Records
---
Amino acid sequence: MPSTPPTPSEIPSTTSSHSSDTLNPGAMKATPQTMSTTTSTESLSTQQSSENPQSSENTGEPAHSYIPPPHTHFSDFVLPNEPETPEPLSYQPDGTVVWDTGSHRMRVGYATSQPTPEQSSSPIPYLTFKPHRGKLRGASPHQKSKFRGNEFTASLYTKLHARTAHSGEVVTNQGVMEDLLDYGWEVLGMAELAESRQEDDDDEESSFGHLASSQGIPNQCIFTESVCNPTSTRAIMSELLFEYYGLPSVLYGVDALFSLYNRVYSPNCSVIDSFPSHALIIRSGHHATHILPIVNQKLDTTNIKRLPLGGHHITEYSSKLIQNKYPLLKQYLTATATGTTTAELIKEQHMYVSQNYWEELQRLALDELYYWNHTHILQMPYTPQRVIQQKSAQEIQEQEERKKQRTEKLERLARERNAEKLKLEQETLSFYLQMKDMMETDRDTYSLWMSQYGFVTDAELDKGIQDIRGKQERREKRKAEKERRKQKLAQLAKDFEKQKSPMELLKEQNPQEWLKSMKQQRNDLKKQIETKKVDAGKASGSRGRRAASKKRLRTITSTLDMSEKETNFGREDNDWDVYREIGTSTLDTLESQEAHLEQMQDEIDEMELALFDRILSHEKRMHYMRQYNFLAAASSRQPNFSGTRNLHEAEFYQYQLTVERMRASEAVFEPMPLLGVKNCGLMEMVEICLSAYDSSVVRQMMQQVHLSGGNAHFAGMKERVESELRAMLQVDVDICVSGESSVYDAWQGASRVALDGDYVRENSMTRAEYDEYGGEYLKEHV
């Protein structure tokens, strides 16, 4: 990977700075709410100063003086605005309510035939929110305790334990789903329908429960669900809708089929006439990816393929990639106030699908210009450090002089206060002694003074005199002890200097000479160890063993003779060295010398490193760490660009994304090598699915290949699927791949189905059918 970006002189003049959409299939889709792409230092500085007005005051320079490398996509990361709950609509009794109950986003609104001016060419849902609900513990009776969807705020998000109604892609938590449906009904203006329920409800918040016992919700409703939704999950929803809300009828439909119908919708045709006879839907949702074949206007459920990999797994994988690359910036990959993680925002705004993953990796490694054209630098928010101006030598000297004068003044004031205190204490003692002497000479004056100074008896006066003398004696003792301790420390320092060996003194006074002497001693010790090893090898024979035995025998004999002549053997510690001499072998001597050699080598290495740090300047030392010690550089916030140039403070808070932009999305096509999921990739599943049909059916399917789900919005997804299909099928097969026009395709398709009233009435499940057949009953339709 290139270490630094190319200079402007190395780039052809025809290439524009900070923009290469033709070379980059994953160009950012920046929006005012999420990302603000900057193309010059002036605009970048202006934007940063408006967002952080205090930064210019702290640094004394432009708030954002960082200049991005040429030919890279640079942008400041800005958290999206917190979603707000819109004002409730006016209730429409005849309007059809469309619910898109996705596991990642839920959408609700009235189906309208004519879009409003704000909705451009297609209707959009009135409310979009994340399907989570939280309760505030310990709330007062007059405080709101339940928060749903867009009611979550930044201050409450960490205090609420958010729960979702889905497990994977199916609804499993009926209680949470009930709260989310209440939230949607309220926004659609149906709060007045719940007035009959509020009188008997102990909860402080409005609820729509038990409307079935009265008039209920009279609106026709359409609900989307995932493909192959279990009947038990559908029974939960049917029970909630019919028995709790009293709906007259409900139309269930697969979200991917609604999305396809939105693409083929014709205003002058019915649903049956508009729906294609053969099609292939590739749906890649939040938790799973499905291949849905349409044959004769029916979903062939026997040939549906499923890959347990979706947008949720891609987000987690991209988060791990970024954390491994930037371990010191993990704090930015946390949940935001909207419940959306930073990794999810990066995935949606910066990642794309490569047309050929492995070939593009090679090109990124070989072509430096191509590498930087595909690099997105994401600047995370940070607080600039305060710039401290370096003082001159004269200013430092003046500051030290002022500090010294202040210290001397404080010491002088302290001495004056102590002197006044001692003088007052001595005067008080003299006066007390004078009073005591007056006790025998002038009794009347003595009694008068005793009453004036608060003494009742003579014993109290004696106690006052003793207290003052005791204070003086203790003060003198402390002074003498302090002086004695000072003299003792001075003597110990002198003794310590005398006890230091010549090598220790040399190490402190002349480290280089000490290092030279230690290296010489190390070499001599190495030679001694080698010589002893050779002698020990020669002495390993029988002659050597006999010589060692004779030596020990002579030592023991001489010791016995000495003990017979002298009766004081053992009184001195040196007498016991004879046992050490007897028990010492060549192996023990070698081990001790080798240990001493290792200790000497450690001391030499430590001194060399200390001298090396003194010689190198800070800049050279940082360059040495970046070049030869990756862990040390990472611990000091490893920058995005290596080299000896000075680094800007902003570079320590940046995500430089190149390979990560396409690697996470590639996991859908190659789950086994990238994620370790034992399953075939997306296009392999498509090939297995198409192999079950005749060539004529496959040709008709290829005329209607539709991409659905959140992952279908990746840049390059449509082109990748089309190229893979062309490589898979015959040359003369016509392929037409279409993607979702917006994230509302499923909801818009369901709202357009609602325009065909006859189709909705014929295929909806009514309350009478629910009472007769149960909640697991299902009507099959297109």
---
Amino acid sequence: ALRKPAPRCALFGVLTTWNSPAMLRAARSVGKRLAVLQQQPLHNLAPRAAYSSAAEAPPAPETIEVFVNDEPVNVAKGATVLQACDASGVDIPRFCYHQRLSIAGNCRMCLVEVEKGPPKPVASCAMPAMPGMRIKTNSEMAKKAREGVMEFLLMNHPLDCPICDQGGECDLQDQSLHFGSDRGRFTETKRSVEDKNVGPLVKMVMTRCIHCTRCVRFATEVAGVQDLGVTGRGRDSEIGTYVEKLMESELSGNVVDLCPVGALTSKPYAFTARSWELKTTESIDVLDALGASINIDTRGTEVMRITPRLNEDVNEEWIGDKSRFAYDALKRQRLAKPMMKIEGKLQEVSWMDALNAIQEKFETTQGSAIKAIAGRLADAESMIVLKDLLNNLGSDNTAFEGELGSSVNADIRSAYLLNTGIANVEDADAILLVGTNPRYEAPLLNLRIRRAAAAGAPVASVGPALDVNYDCEELGTGLDVLAKLAAGKHPFASTLAQASRPVILVSYESLKRPDGASILNALNQIVAKADAVGDDWNGFSVLHECAARVAALDIGFVPGVQTAPAKLVYLLGADDTVEGEIPDDAFVIYQGHHGDRGAQRADIVLPGAAYTEKAATYVNTEGRVQRTMAAAPTKGDAREDWVIVRAIAEVLGVRLPYTTTEGVKERLMQMSPSFGGDDSRPESSLGVDLVSGGDLSGLSKEPLKHAIKNFYMTDSISRASATMAKCVAVRNARAPARAAMTAEERAKLQKLLNSARKDRIKESATQMKL
């Protein structure tokens, strides 16, 4: 073709030579068109109008009809050829394409043939579907193209399948079987790449990498960190961290699920099990207040790994690193047998001996001197049974750990819920954070806030400085800022007032302070001035940091009237009590699954079940009722928590009106009708308990504090995890270098980081829209 003086170009339909000015101008035009298309959101990609000298054509319909293997299918205007094939039920192989990431078009595995289109296979992930387009997915051209692409991918891929942790669930294995050839022609030496060390969670064997860049796009677009990237060109291309460093995202483990080959695998799971050996149980995560949907994979009696489960309303298909990797604690420091303190030391005893000792202690203690404290991992069933037991004994002294008093009205459910809804936070056009650090308290909610910020929503924070992956204006740490916002005298107050969907997100940690009532009054006034509560939008949201508190508020497991000092304290998994909650001379009974702080303080220890070992009810921070499922048996002589409390009631002669799990659930519904729902968020149009002209004189000068300082260790399970301990050790190893800086150097570094973060946000805004 190059020898011919004037060939006809099939793409542009003009007579030209390959190096003519006309050809170069046409190529530049197409290049500009492609650049514009890449900058537009997917839903804005419309088919190009036909060239005509007539009047402007009528607007295109919302859907278009295409033909996949001669079968008609209607798809949304702007959909890609790959999406059209998926809609028709035709499976198109792909490695680089992912529905939640921007389109890269790297792997070329999704090649299909388009009739009367380009004279070569097209990448279906990047080609917009046109009206009337006829797509062939099984033609000889498409098959031969896929075989060629697969041959190139396998050219440098090592024969690691027998020792690769991805074996049995590897996309490369499956697609090479179905779409590859039966032989390869490459006989040269395979390429090898040095493995990278990015911390104790993700194992990188980069010789297996096929450069799909899913991990790079996830880190940049979803996690919001510039940790991974591509260096080198051609055969020397590598994916890594540029310089050896940690992946500093709390969501880094999700790259394990995204990687289609064995290049990125779970380091704690390495060489422990194969996928066909595992039994999968659908459950929820309870290590934070969001209740992410998870799959628990077990082999025999042991939990081998935890992976995310699709739930668009809560976690989409991601989970945090703590939820994913802390499972190793389920076999460490476990309480397997009842114990009593004999001669100053805890010693193992039988269940009968422990129950007899408890009976003797209860019978010698007045009901008003009995106190129960629930912990952050307690389920709703055990809390309601324990509350009924204490009420029958004449005690109303119940409390949640870490709370000496709270100003939240437990009778108004919308006063302590994330009323906006987890999924709706990303639709906000202005966000005010009060005393909360969503990066540590709820990493998956932080993703939603980042999307809102990328869409242009201003985000501001009242409280300690935040290290987040979006632009956040620091308003100050003192409550005087909150008072100015309530009075409408702060510049950000006008921002909230101008917003149509503002969100005021406050941590429950801020509301349980001694001046929590005044803080709530200030929030009332901010909500009223911003008009944040309406018929179709509720912008007042409370973020909890633990899984059990919302259920405790729903059933009324809150402090009652204490007429006498507590002489007997029952700890229901409470390991994070504060000074003053437990009197020094009190007799302590601890019920839980790990030998943590509560067990060290106890006189009697009763072994309970972890969340992977029982079917139990939890309520997440937005009021969604969720249920765990038993994936593994309990350890040793441990029993389900509500069963233990029910047995104590029998020993004491207290007749509770239920003996089965169904009976306990009916009792829960009697206490709160919300427990009748299953994985559904309640619709709430009420705001906070609005108080006209609330008094702000009680605001103290003590600055706000965050509930969580160490993301990796927040409860008895994560504190017992060796993997989480490694994460803490690696993070702390970097602390001395920063601590050695002067204040001026730290300020200069922070200013540089903030500037770089803003630049990254601008660069990735378009990709986030895609």
---
Amino acid sequence: LGMADRSNKGLNLVLDLVRTQTPWSKIPPEIRKRYQSQLGTEDKWERLRIPWALQLHLPHHTTMLIPKSKFYYRALEAFRVKRMPYPYHYQREIIDLLGILPRRYYSELIATLLASERGFDEVPSFTARDVVRLINIDRNAYIRIANACKRDNQWSNVKRRHAVISRYLPPPPLEEGTPDPWWNVWTVGARKQEEGVEWEQKELNAFSTITQSESTLAGEVSRTGVNMLHCRGRVWFEVKLTPQDRITVPPLEGFVMNKLNRDQFERLMYEIFVTADESYTLQELATVLNADLRLVLDAASLYCRLGFAKRVPPHGESIALHVSWESEGGNQPTGGLERQGTDTDDLRDRIALVYDASVVSWLMMGSFSATLKQLSVSMFEVGRLRAKSVEQLITEIGKLDRNTAAAAGGEFLEYFEYSAALRRTLLSIQAGGKRKVSMFRLGSLANLDHKTRAKLLERYTCVVSIAPSRATTEHDQNPPSLGPPSRLCRSPWMKLFLYQSLQSGPASVLFSRGTRITTLPHPLRKYRRYLVVEWDASNSQVASSNPVTGKTEGLDGSGNGVLIVHRCEIVLLLNSRITLHPVFVQGYETMEFEDSKQGKLRERRTSSGHARWASAIMMAGCLKRDEDMRRIKSPNAHSKELTAVVPLPFPTTKADTKEKKNSIEGRGELGVPVEAYEVAKRVVMEFGVGRAVGYVRTLTEINPKTKEIKWIPLELEFGVVMFQHNSNTTQCKLLETDELLSEEALKSHANDMTAFAKRLDKFVSKYSSGPGKGWLPRHSLLFDGHSLRRLTLA
């Protein structure tokens, strides 16, 4: 509710009334009448005020119809049911009224989970981190406790399970709950002498120091003493932030990759992960996110408590530290960061590199470095690497050894090549330190609303994308983007637009949902294998999920959304998939020879229908199960014999063209056939994208009868190529100079991309149902190799 749609005036009015704790009697009658659907009746309003107040992290108010203790008990139970982190924003009231500390809360939560025999994965990620921090139970410890409990003789008695569990829970860790020196420390009531428990002198001294002052910082007390008091539940910590404070997010340590709650507060926390910058105050950050300041402060406080963020100390701040904080290896004097060399010293020449989840998988699966894995987790969960962390990433990738990757076998060498290409790209963009680079995960940017994303990116000189990317976000070229200029670039419409504009391309069909076929349209029958892409309602090719929203992000950068299907399987596959969503199918490999016997068998249609036709094929033994259907697991997995990749931009001078035409291999060290180069040149001239960074993939078509080879366009992608060494090297050489990233070049490029996006939008509007219905096709469309038309099925 704290991040509700600002266009919904009725909901915003309700939220304002909740924030001001307005009782029913104080709501003006005209407002009650106008927004009756939101406000309801008096009874409904009073019932809903409390859960809404809890979601907005509002305290108890005297106008509420329930006592204060019951309000905070309901808050605790609401958080416990959803397994959310302890409600630290109500900590003072919960401790004073209910006496429940965070350690007890988490111990009971874990006990309930164990008693119901559920897994540790059921604990959401942020909650799991606090569980590890405070009660020392991680995934492995949880499994050990669960196994020990099940071996206990009393486990079969359900009523005795909590008693059994309590015997196996570990003691709370002494050091894991160590506060930062700037945290406030408060005592839990007056000093009491527990039965059989003696107070140590360090505890007594620390307790005395805390009680002698109205407000005490943890750094002013003995580090060991305050830890012992906290471990035994005698003190609690307040992590208080003000609207003028600033935070920064270093690489994650101790993050637990578990399930998500997908509630509004968790969503806000992930948005802060991406947008938090030490140049923003928390007040400014709330403005950028268009979020409630109270919720932003609570989220930032929780981040600092979990160790995922650091408070940036204001200039001149100093704490009279107890000597133990330095002698015992404590934190920095202010518990924050040194201000020298921060990411915000120079806001000029800042470049944002946008990557997708496939890049993270390369790093995680292909690395042997714990530091690199930590950075990879940050890239995925935080969704961003700041400039300092990018420098660390470059260093860690540089430590990888190609021979070690090759010796590991499997796909490790391919992962190494991808990682090396990423490092080469980052170094080229930095241009010897002239520019600073930050990295953003595409899914995290897509999770932000348009205004927030625009405010975040406008601080950068340019946005550079990796190609091919999982999807893209709406971008108005402010700042200029060396990447896809429209979301439609990652949909089948892009290919149809390319083919129709050039009047050249493989025969292709975009089947609308619900279509049924008994055989392929005639132009597709000359192929042996096909490329098949399933298309969801977000006009993106079907792939994996966004870790925050759970929604599909589109085509995976590794190509996981594309199938190569043998002609013997294609009709069966299409009929099974078109019932769910539109499907895009295009010819990929033509028949290289004519086998009249099998050819007639494949085209045979009998009165008994398609099932008998397919059975006849299988009986004839024409199906090869290892080749019938496979996914393109990486962008480099396309057939080298059928396709060629031409990187963009490329020189277009007469002298260069003449030199390349005289080369048998086409463009020199790239090894691209001259015919493929000519196709790419046609693409550049047709769309005016001579300054774009990307590539054109071309395809060969072989006439089965004449054996004539013809090169045609297959796809146009925008962004820096990662999957091919020569192409990446060529583009990186241009990125090092000002040829692509100068102010004049970026301005011209932005104009070119804006014109391209408008032309693409106009084309799609002609054939689609519009943005309201996900740009889905109104009818099935056929491109026959020369022109696009509506497909009519017999």
---
Amino acid sequence: MRTAVYALAALAAASGVTAFMPQTNFAGRAPSLRARASTRSAVSVGPRMVGTVKPDVMPYKTANPASWAAGDVMRPRWLTSWDDSKSALKERFGYSDGDLAKYDNLSKEDQMEALYMMHLSRQFETACNQAYMQGNIRGFMHLDNGQESIPALVYDSIKKGDKKYSYYREHTHALASGVQPGPIMAELFGKIDGTCKGAGGSMHIFDKETNFQGGWALVAEQLPYAAGAARSILLDRLRDAEAFKDDDRLSVVFIGEGGSQNGRMAEVLNAAAKETLPLLIIVIDNGRAINTFTGDVAANQDVYLQGQHYGVPGIKVDGCDLDGVLKAGRAVTDYVRTKGPAILQVHTFRFNGHSPADPEHERGRKQEKKWAREAADPIAIYEAELLERGTVTQAELDEVKARANKECKDAVKFASDSSPPPANLAKELEFPDKPNTDYNLKTAPQDADAINARTLEPEALATCNAHMETLRDKARAGQLTIGDAINLAVLEEMIRDPTTTIHAEDLQAGSSYDIPKLTQQTFGKLRAADEIIDEGHFLGKALGEGMNGYRPIVEMMNTNFAIYGMAEISSLGNTYATTGGKFDMPVTIVGAGGTAPAQSLGAEHSQPFHAYIMGIPGLKICSAASPEAAYGLTKSMIRDNGPGMLFCPVKMMKDVKGSPELGKCMPLNKAALLNKASDASVKSGKAVTVLTYLHGVREAQTAMLELQAEGMDIDLIELRSLKPLDKDTIRESLTRTNKLAILDESTYSGGIGATISAMVSEEMFDLLDAPVKRLCMDDAPVPYSLAMEAAVVKRASDLVTGVADLVFRRF
């Protein structure tokens, strides 16, 4: 037999160290809670975490059932009582006995409604399993049988206006949030009447009316999204304090005890504590991965203690004790509504395997499920308790079960009767705004001036206006840098639309290229957030804000750092389509990157991240090698209702200067013809179309002078839109030159040039009289040494040779 020690606080408790300290800068909120029959009112509690947390030590058994003693199990129940929970709530949440007294009693009506939600959840999942076996539901599906106390808790304590973020096992969470069973089942069936028109499926349930915001399939990705949604609640209160004076909404996120070991948990706890976010983290603790015991891979399963480092209180309850779950749930949600973030861990048993598509072949899983169904069924346990107390009759219990049964049968019929979505819907859901949108025609919010007047300090706004006027003077003189051009566009758009926010590292000081300069000084810490050094988590917070009415800008100090946020960028691109077009995703990512010749930054700072994200659907990707392009594209991206990423050349941010057309947005789907080859060069066959972007623009301009001196010329096209690609401009140029060279700032394998070359060969082959010439980075990592780097990164001299090869047919 082996023993697992789950409590991170054991050493602190043994030594008498105080594990949870009060937070000195704590501030409460308007105590406006929803009215309940049990007269639950706002609570008045003290510091968020006080006292010493005692270690929790629990054994778990070997995998061999033959070695178990009679009545022994691999994972026993977490046997706690409401009295135990009250002690924890007093110790860690600062509640008093008087505060907690209001939670002591549950009305029969509330108990029966909670029981109904458990039955509805159980029967819905059983119906899903049957439909899966019949082939009506496909792909991955994850069922929740055995964990019904959690949807009962949601049904009891979470309101319609609260923001809800779940993971891939979310059917019952959606039900408990008020999403109708029929559309949920239709979504699982892939039908047009599903919550997301059949685009999301089992793992992606979304419903705007009930604020059920997923359904997210990548483990732990939902954590920062929920934090962003919690920020949107605070932003609402900031934007209109009078309208939201009684606001007590919260954001709730569901995660497993395994997923909560992810680093995103620490990042979100830090963010939630730093900004006192109304964020409730519900940890669903069933002790298993697909087959593996969580204890085999996690040193500590007491996730509710993770918040102690940040002053975020937590509590763990027995998911087989519904009354205890509901009472603790009410106390914890009331705390979050009035005080700040908290963790609620619910110890459960999951009766089904991970998914019907996954085998169950390890570690006594079948034996454990058999025991759990017999001894740890929360529905059977609760019904027995209600009967023993004389609270209900068997007839009343049967009526509740029959009611749930009818709803599930109706849901299956609704899904069966619904039609499949039209095939062309997939392409229609690619972008919220069409690629040819004219962003100059988008009007500013009518109440922008009024909001700015009541939320911005006049002196700070005056300073910002003076700064912007200085930048405009530089633009008029042709002296505006790329970094300053983006800064001017950002400030103008944040004033134009008060729902615009910004996140960046080192934001207070303007980051590396002054892109977010004066944003926090003008708009405050909530709209302009200086972030801890992890790009993924604040990209995730931006996604959560974007789903809830805001237009976040995320500045990457270097675009290669966004590698830490690939999961979040992927979801940015997919979400509009996955939700069936219900949720726009107006998030703009902007930063300096790319690989200039002789930049001497080494491999990690010289990666072609723009190529890495080309395969993400729904994402508009642009590049800007001039202040003119940087200014106009930034403004358009911020106004676009979908996600976009703007790349600027890291070695040109401060030394290239120009004169953008002030106030003008540029299209997000057009390339720019920077030089048109002379008619004489075209006629003599010495003209070549050159496609390039980022540092390649300057290299091509340098090469062009040498080529012209030798009697050759180029149509120089800057690819300001990498996706969608401006095929029309390329085709028009090739009609004249019939030759194509691509100076590409990405690798030979999987690069931008490879994509373009394939497209031209497939769609414009008849226009070519020579093979496409790709001048791209070698697949080798970019070295620091200039001698080696010259062999990897292409430059002006390579372009001169490449164009000459095409003209003189050296191929």
